[in-house]
Amino acid sequence: DELGAEQEERRRRTLLNKEFKAFSEKIAEASEGSIDVDIPFRDIGFQGVPFRTNVLLQPTTECLVHLTDSPFLVIPISDIEIAHLERVQFGLKNFDLVFIFKDYSRPPVHINTIPMNQLENVKDWLDSVDVTFYEGTQNLNWSQIMKTINQDPADFYAQGGWSFLKLHSENEDSDGSSDSASEYQQSEDGYEESSSDESSYDEEASDDSDPGSETEESDETAPDWDELEEKARRADERKHGTKRGNASDEEPSRNKKLRR
């Protein structure tokens, strides 16, 4: 049953594609060349979430479209003024794409959760169709931005127009670099403290393990060789002197015994 259903679905899709192709060719013939049928470029398509589900968005010569499932999406490239790439930063798996239209009364279109590995493909496509784009690390409040622009468009352009997106991106980069510099400075301070601790430890270790100092102190407190010899000689004299004295005391007693 599953195999038969799969084959039926494939047959129905092929038939639908043929009918759609025939319909587009008839439109082009009936318009006598005033209407050109646009074909999506699937090889440069990218995944994204324009509404609630993740779908395949495919560029064409004139548009960016999603026509496979409802709700459909068709964004004419000629209607786009700028594009803004958001949440573009190291460590994130996805980024967002916002299209701002030339008609400022039209709300921007958000395409969220585009895989980060397709970032360069999206940039190349935008560049190939001459759409100016900026990028930043955060999501912007576009409803408030467009409200401010619509209040006084002339003043908006007098103050630099969309260049504030570039300045915003540069400020984010400078903040990141300053944070990195402060972290680097802290690491240097920690290294200096550890180095001073190590040097003090080395000094203590060298004081404790210096055999020369102990030898010098022992040499100063210990008696020299001459003193030792003198002490030994005196002890020897005292010893022999006592024995001689005992021997001289015994000689008279022996003489007395002989006389008796």
Description of the molecule:
With 260 residues, the protein is α+β, with helices and mostly antiparallel strands. It is 57% helix and 16% strand. The chain has helices spanning 2-30, 119-128, 142-151, 153-158, 163-208, 211-221, 225-259; strands at residues 46-48, 55-59, 63-66, 73-76, 80-86, 94-101, 109-115, 132-135. The radius of gyration is 49 Å and the shape is elongated. Mean pLDDT is 78; it is low at 177-196, 198-203, 208-219 and 242-260.
Short overview:
The protein is of the alpha+beta class and 260 residues long. 57% of the residues lie in helices and 16% in strands. It has seven helices and eight strands; from the N terminus they run αβββββββαβααααα.
Could you list some keywords that capture this structure?
260 residues, alpha+beta, 4-stranded antiparallel beta sheet, 4-stranded mixed beta sheet, 7 helices, 16% strand, elongated
Please outline the helices and strands.
Elements: H1 2-30, E1 46-48, E2 55-59, E3 63-66, E4 73-76, E5 80-86, E6 94-101, E7 109-115, H2 119-128, E8 132-135, H3 142-151, H4 153-158, H5 163-208, H6 211-221, H7 225-259
Parallel strand pairs: 5-8
Antiparallel strand pairs: 1-2, 2-3, 3-4, 5-6, 6-7
